[in-house]
User: Fold these one by one.
Assistant:
Number 1:
Amino acid sequence: MAKKKISRKSVSTRTSKGKASVEKGAKFEDTVADVYRLLGADVIPNIEICQKKVDILATFRLPGSPTGHRVIVECKDEKKAPAQNQRVMQFTGLLDTARKAGEADSAAIITRFPWSDQAKGFAKKSGIELLTYAQKMTQLIDLTQYLKDLVDRFEKKDPRRPSEPPLGAYYVDLSAERVTRKGSEKITVIDDYIHEWIHGNNTTHLAILGEYGTGKTSLAQKLARDLAAAYLNAPGSTRIPVLFSLREFTKTLRIESLVTSFLDQECGVMNPRFRLFQAMNDAGIFLMIFDGFDEMAVRVDVDTLEINLQEIEKLAAVPKSKVIITSRLEYFVSGEEEKRCLRPKGDLLATREIEYEPLKIVPWDEEQVNSFLKKRVPLIRGAKHPWTYYRDRIRSIPGLGDLSRRPVLLDMIVKTLPQLIASGKQINRPSLYETYLLGEIKRQRIIKKRTLLLQETTRLSLLERLALDFYGGEIPAITFVDAQKYIRKFVKPPRTESEAYTRDFLTCSFLIREGDQYRFSHRSIMEYLAAKGLMEEINKNHPRAFACQRLDPVVTGFLVELQPDATRLWNWIESAKSEEKADSKYLGGNAATVLCRLDRSALAGKDLSGTNLIGADLSSADLRGAEFRGTLMKNVDLEHAKFMKEDLRAADLSDLSMTIFYFVKLSEAKISKLREHIIVPSGRSDDILIRELSNQLSNLGVSVYSIAWDGDAEGHLLVQVHARIPDVRRLESIQNEVSVQSMVQSSSIYADEQEQFFATIPNSLSKLRDQFKNW
């Protein structure tokens, strides 16, 4: 028989593949050796044991032992698992020989592929540990008890909320929206999207955004519980959830401190080391959830925000890492800032590379609200009616239906509504919060039989002062010593009882302790109490916190519902002349904000000459006929506001938020030209135009917040642009000077342009026209 000729090329190919395989195996051995070193072992690679080559000899030092515990380790970086039982038998023979020779005590085989149950059973009898590399990595830090605690807190009882039923008893799935090239896409159950992302290859991280009370923290706890339960049931089947609460970091974050504190306090790790956590994260073992990014700093600036994101990036930048951050949507002051923080790659001056896909939690719909009520009402003490009764009462109270679409507020409504119905009091947000807070104090005193030293009015007064200090950024949190100073200053107890009064205040006042510092248990409670404190300043005609910081929209909403004295607010506007004073910079602007929330036309026709209205939120206000000669109007929000062209001409204007309308008749020739340069997957001509319009406005120095638009089959397009305009002197040129001018039939900013502008809108766009007109 003729011999088969073997070409030099085939020999060379096999030699090359063999060399690559050896190099790959050696690299895997080095990787496994590093794991044993991290575990504290002395490692000798490529050693001969009983005349057999062994990949690794790892020796763990034991007290009183001259040799320690010696483990011989075989490393296999293979895609398949050939002859598993045979491999175990061979290694068993070597282990037996090494034990008799006094050269080894146990053995392990580390692979990339998973082992069969049969092989595991056979190896267990022989004293050999069979693990994948990922499973070996999880031995660096034992998080088993932490995972069990995550499950128990959600399903059984959360010791941090001893009076509440477990969250799992009444949790309802959340929905969200994500932005795609085609527009906004609804995510019916956000958990489904997140789990698909966890097990996928997408390297972009997630940012879960939502307004206050939308359930971000509950979602984080639910997600952590689901992953923990899955991992405990089948180790290695999913990532290990690591839920960080960022509320205690009120300045700038240091990731090493966060991790070691978490391992110590949350996981009970005896010797918490950041290096071990980092190695596990590098191997893709964790899903890290940074909950409450918006609560990390009280006094936030761009630098602080950037520094905190850089710290998270120390862990997020690893190729195999998966990170979720949760934050209030309003934490980012503009759409541009949100984009810069979450999508930094397009920024020439960016110091970070990691990107986050924003998922915006949307308020509950009717079905979700009903599902929550069905679960929650039976768990409420004092609820004597079926859930449908409370659903109907919520629907019948003006404004309550909208509030009930936020999980946190709906929970508060359900807790307090039975009491309010029984008392016959007016039901609105302030009355709900007041009833909830007073009811909890009563529960502490009567149901728990606690002897409270502070009267209810005194306690609430102290909390209002504290909330204002938190809200104004004067202090990020209080320690026991700080609280004792509060008590001595405002309560003046006997000196011998100062400590007792302080303990009473900290223990029974909706505060939680984290480390040595105390904060409000929920941000919305702080905001309500801050509004109460501001209301007290108005009633006493003593603006302190009211004058030194721009009003937050949530606090403004509470304050308006408390019905402040409009005459007093007008007096404050009169006293706020154009001279800027450090201690009253926002007095006039805040007073105007509240007045225009009480009555949209409050400023119409008024003489506001020389007044300081810095930072005023005049969105949707009617300003027609008002005199603004020499009025300071820096950083004023005028979105949807109605004002005449001559109204603002004499004002000192800069850095304004405004609304611009455009009516466009699409030109097919222009569209064809645009399609040559801009490819839009949907192929919609209005998509192309909006992108072009946005780009041109940006080139003119305009920061575009959002653009709303729609069109008809005839090629008409109605566009509404919300933007920040830094240079008001160019207002009219910004209104008109865009590259799509040939298609713009008309545009409008001023109220005296509106009638003529909307008259050009065809009937086919009447629905959108009416929506924009009825701001």
Number 2:
Amino acid sequence: MTDARPAPSLTSQAVWLMMAKTVSFAFAIALPLLLVRRLSQQELGLYKQAFFVVTTAMNLLPLGFAMSAFYFLPRERTRQPAVVANILAFLAGTSGLAALLLLVWPGFIVWLFGTPELAGLARLLGVVVLLWTLGSFLELITVAVQDVGASTAFIVLAQFSKTALLMGAAALFGTVQALVVAALLQGIVQITVMALYLRRRFPGFWRAFDWPLLRRQGGYALPLGMSSLVIQLQDSLHHLFVSHAFGPAGYAIYSVGVTQLPLVGILRESAGAVMLPRINQLESENGRLQIIELVARAGRKLALVYFPLSAFLLVAGHEVVIFLFTRRYEASWPIFAIAVSILPMNAIVLDPVTRAHSERFFFLRLRLIVLGVLTTVLALYASELGLVGVMASVFTAIATIWLVGLWRMSRMLEVGRTELRAFAPVAWIAAATLAAAAVTAVVHAMVAGPPVRVIAICAAAFGAVYATILGLSGVIAIAEVWSLLRDLRRAATGAGALFGALRRRSRPQAPSDPTAPAPVNLVAP
């Protein structure tokens, strides 16, 4: 634990983690595409409900406590095993209570979703919740200690084993119970790997529990965790009302419509994480104009992705839904259209600004108010609204928070007409997007044939118009393109060096020469 070898650079960490996330996503996307073809709508709805319990529990039950590893491990170097033991004890306690609830009262999950068929799966799901919540600490701890090689391997292998087990269960048995049993096996595998890793990395961690340190960790993490809890509830509650009002088959259509697009969340969260420390520094230096410029530059880069993605899917999304999920889920298209309309809001990143200006409690109150109104509306009128109406209500809630946040940020930063000029490139991107969408809509109306043919032709038309207008407007400078290419080349060089180091470490080492200079270690111990 006192090894002084240097940690890998931030670039190396980012390259490897992004590679791991990308490969992991490639494995994960295959599963729903198989399930929509292997299971009936009723069975797919049951599967979505069952695993909604697991994933929601994994997000809610830690209450942000595991994130204390990032703060306390560097500061408590002599008590790192205690930090780990405390986190595991907390996760075991919260997930254990949830598992006990489902073991003792299987009807709870029936009450939650209004689906009697879930009663027979409740006890198995309780065990899966316990194992997956505990096992989720493996990915986090490897990142916290900057063990890039291990974190990359665990992210990829965990997703591969989960996808393989679940796809095997779907292909061989084709039942929801088989999928839950496969998830239980995955939990056992991940817990075993985590125990072996922690035993090597933090010897004796299982007997290092420290109550005073646990209280300090809780004081740091739980306030942030409660704010995250509200956000998770806002993102999750509408699923429960849809399940109650429309049953498993209706929920299957709804869940396909609100499918998460690849890497969209990662891009937004990455931008926020990079901006937060810089905005904190600028706020302490009274750098109001610099903060506005930073938000505008980030908005330009995010808009280059979010605006065209949303517009293209609004034009050709009907064929995308059919191509990915078959015509059985064609009814998901209107829900999908509303969901992708949320994407442009992500271009202006508000969270780092509100955090730097101590506005978290204002937005926590705002989220609680909006959540209360949304919950009341869905509780009373979900059946009358229909699936599309429920999604429209969710869109309204998200848009309300975003618009109030935009107004609040403009007031804090005193944004006037002069400052708005910094956002001119975002306006150009919006104009290019609208023009490309208009042309693509005309092409879409003229093209017929299989969905993949329509998607390809529309994508070519959209891309040509979008790129031409951006090039003529000067939104993307040639120097910026060359800079991006140089950054990618450096990242590739760093990844190659890191891969070579990992490969050398895996080979048997010859006896070292004490007179030879020490090699540079690119991987954290």
Number 3:
Amino acid sequence: MKFKVGDLIYDKDFPEDGMALVIEVRKVDRRYKHWRDNNGYRCLETLTGKTNWYTVGYIEEECEWAKTDNKCPGLSGSKG
């Protein structure tokens, strides 16, 4: 799954590692044989506060969008 700047994501196999905010996306030539190995996503890690580059393969194959529920403050459907 492709992500865009502003998406909040997490590793679906290791959710305890926290979430990350996508802050930069590099365009990768997907015709290249090893395109999955290119660093294509720069993320801000919520647990450490550090930014790191991650490979396209890792982010697009091992991560998911963080989902919100109806109890999240600020959502129109919130019932507090």
